[in-house]
Amino acid sequence: MTELPRRLAVIGAGPLGCELAQCFQRLGSRVTLITDGAEILPREDRDAAQIVHRQMEKDGVRIIAGANIQRAEIRDGAKNLTLTAADQQFAIACDAILVSVGRTPNVENLGLEAAGIRYSARGVEVDERLRTTNRRVFAAGDICSRYKFTHAADAMARIVIANALFFARRKVTDLVIPWCTYTDPEVAHVGFHEKDARAAGSTWRQLRRR
Fold first, then answer.
1. Residue 205 domain-assigned?
2. What's the domain range around 195?
3. What is the pLDDT of residues 120-150, one digit of tens each?
């Protein structure tokens, strides 16, 4: 079995970064979680994210928010990250660095321009039926979805098969996507957050457990 790093720096405080930071801390590493945002789990409900934040700090994870990484280097046999946060510069020495800052769609060298398929840094452009700008080509999964989940990709693939091969008219916008962040405590939801409902102009009412 590979030995656990004694000191671990995790860059990125999204779901994967938080899950792995808490996991390694509980397995015995001393973990520093670094994010350039104001808080962890920025896509989750703020109250829920703060509960996870408090639990992670209780577990011993050091969380540095609002940080910008200036450089990474090896010094005296150790890996070092130089950061600026709250107008101060300081260094963190660690045995391993885990980078969890999201994914970039791999659209290079596919000849999409020649096929008349529009794309951007976010991925391939599709309509609500997952058809690209070339009406003979469909796309599904991470390459064209804001939901980077295996179950979302599976649901989208089923829509593509139905629409492309059986002339159905299924819409990806009809999907209601659940997701869960496997921290302790876990954070899960289905459908809109409050901020999503506000952005969509929906009427909403907040319910609280007594």
1. no
2. 110-200
3. 989 999 999 999 999 999 999 999 998 888 9
